[in-house]
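stage 2 :: seqdesign
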């Protein structure tokens, strides 16, 4: 491989091959909003509290009381975390390789950072090697900007050591040990001895490091008993939680100095990371994965029925969702705001979809939409389009979202013949007629009675998330219904606005949201022992008026976040 302007040097680093048989490797989410996520069970948010009072006070070196962190194996970087880490490690001067294999498949909780059961395949190993080499080539080209001593006429071993001290530390997310540093310097020296330039030899080292578990996985040392995380382990948890990226130098400096042993320092760093623009991507990812909202593209929709849904409009729809999510958190918004706000961010494309005046070309504007039509995240076009078919809406996908993601209710799988037995439907049935026919089938009735009403309430929005007064055949839409078993009794509503307003007032919604925050932050499903942590999150949401940013920061002080147990 030609890594610079000098001689060709082949990069052959077999370390990553060992990962092919690693157990419990990560499996990421597909990102398709219409997928069926089976939410894991667990506590309902009630239960005893542990020694952590919830006010930030630390209670000891062990994990006190009944709250204990579940065993957690190392997690492989997601594609997003890989891309953002490469950018951070090399100061934005090197792009991540498109060859890096994204973990595939769904996770039990629907959050992409959760552990999965899929091992790294031989093909994945090959792609990881290619990706490391791609990045190494670009590092060689950018080296004079990344490493000032590399611009010297004859950079030496000390300069290679400087690379490991800065970029190497970022790659491993801690200072390298002598046992790690010396073999890497030997790789550099061997490359130079074989005729490689300084930059090419550094590229060899880079490619080797980017194939190691220290980079590819978020690793934490096992322990025989529950223990506190070390400073560098906690730094990685903080950074990958709030930035989906490797810790920056400031955070690593604090970690290695011992400062992160102090509760106030942990809170200060969490607040710093959340306030930085790097957190915007993570905020948007949380909203997307919480609501099962995938990235929509023109290929997802019928060009015959929706010719206006081109690449530009799809990009606007996706960007508008992310701006809405970030705006809620950045403005100190609450869960109630996320569900009931009529504000939206629009460009010319989204303005046309909403049938409102457009901002100047190429600009975005914050607007307030008609509150009789638009209420919070459930009426965002990206969510509605993601939870729909290519040519029609899906009251099942949309209704399932309410039950599973907003209320954390577990739904049984459909019967084996659910898709093979045709329904006895009239010609061109309405969505409600189709739902009533499914409910009438005994084996389908329980689930569809639970799911369909909430989805039918959103039938005024078509398959691209646009408001409509009638269905595709010009018939009036009836958005009324009843959600059984919600609140103290059943929840009867007149339309989607009434549904959202009543849902926002139910205690189940706040409890479920606390559970969703826990799953997102800990990258795992909750256990019975996590009831106290979830109760603390519920308390923060109540005490802080539901402030979402405060709740996200609060979780970093929980014992479950700051400790680990042996896998």
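stage 2 :: out
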């Amino acid at each position: 491989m030609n890594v610079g302007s000098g001689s060709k040097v082949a990069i052959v680093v077999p370390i990553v091959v060992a990962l092919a048989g690693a157990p419990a490797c990560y499996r990421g989410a597909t990102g398709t909003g219409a997928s069926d996520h089976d939410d894991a069970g667990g506590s309902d948010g009630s239960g005893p509290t542990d020694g952590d009072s919830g006010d930030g006070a630390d209670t000891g070196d062990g994990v006190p009381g009944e709250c204990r962190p579940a065993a957690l194996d190392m997690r492989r970087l997601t594609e997003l975390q890989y891309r953002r880490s490469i950018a951070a490690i090399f100061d934005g001067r090197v792009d991540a390789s498109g060859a890096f294999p994204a973990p595939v498949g769904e996770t039990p909780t629907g959050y992409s950072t959760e552990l999965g059961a899929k091992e790294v395949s031989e093909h994945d190993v090959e792609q990881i090697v290619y990706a490391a080499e791609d990045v190494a080539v670009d590092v060689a080209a950018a080296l004079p900007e990344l490493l000032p001593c590399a611009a010297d006429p004859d950079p030496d071993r000390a300069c290679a050591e400087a690379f490991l001290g800065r970029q190497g530390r970022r790659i491993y997310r801690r200072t390298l040990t002598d046992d790690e540093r010396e073999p890497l310097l030997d790789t550099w020296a061997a490359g130079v001895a074989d005729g490689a330039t300084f930059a090419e030899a550094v590229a060899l080292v880079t490619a080797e490091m980017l194939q190691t578990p220290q980079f590819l996985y978020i690793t934490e040392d096992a322990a025989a008993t529950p223990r506190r995380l070390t400073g560098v382990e906690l730094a990685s948890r903080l950074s990958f939680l709030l930035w989906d990226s490797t810790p920056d130098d400031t955070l690593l400096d604090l970690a290695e100095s011992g400062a992160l042993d102090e509760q106030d320092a942990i809170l200060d760093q969490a607040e710093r990371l959340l306030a930085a623009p790097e957190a915007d991507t993570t905020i948007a990812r949380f909203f997307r994965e919480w609501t099962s909202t995938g990235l929509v593209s023109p290929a997802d929709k019928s060009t015959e029925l929706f010719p206006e849904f081109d690449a530009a409009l799809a990009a606007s729809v996706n960007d508008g969702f992310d701006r809405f999510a970030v705006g809620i958190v950045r403005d100190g918004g609450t869960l109630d705001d996320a569900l009931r706000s009529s504000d939206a961010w629009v460009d010319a494309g989204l303005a046309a979809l909403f049938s409102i005046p457009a901002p100047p070309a190429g600009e975005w504007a914050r607007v307030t939409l008609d509150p009789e039509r638009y209420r919070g995240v459930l009426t965002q076009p990206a969510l509605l389009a993601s939870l729909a078919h290519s040519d029609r809406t899906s009251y099942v996908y949309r209704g399932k979202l309410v039950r599973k993601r907003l209320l954390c209710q577990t739904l049984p799988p459909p019967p084996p013949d659910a898709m093979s037995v045709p329904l006895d439907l009239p010609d061109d049935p309405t969505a409600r007629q189709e739902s009533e026919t499914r409910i009438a089938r005994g084996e389908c009735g329980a689930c569809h009675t639970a799911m369909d009403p909430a989805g039918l309430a959103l039938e005024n929005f078509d398959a691209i998330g646009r408001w409509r007064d009638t269905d595709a055949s010009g018939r009036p839409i009836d958005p009324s219904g009843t959600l059984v078993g919600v609140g103290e009794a059943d929840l009867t509503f007149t339309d989607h606005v009434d549904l959202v307003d009543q849902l926002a007032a139910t205690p189940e919604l706040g409890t479920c949201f606390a559970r969703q925050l826990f799953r997102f932050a800990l990258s795992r499903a909750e256990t019975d022992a996590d009831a106290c942590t979830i109760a603390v999150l519920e308390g923060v949401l109540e005490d802080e008026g539901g402030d979402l940013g405060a709740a996200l920061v609060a979780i970093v002080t929980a014992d479950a976040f700051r400790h680990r147990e042996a896998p």
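stage 3 :: structure notes
- Residues 122-146 form the longest helix (25 residues).
- The mean pLDDT is 86.
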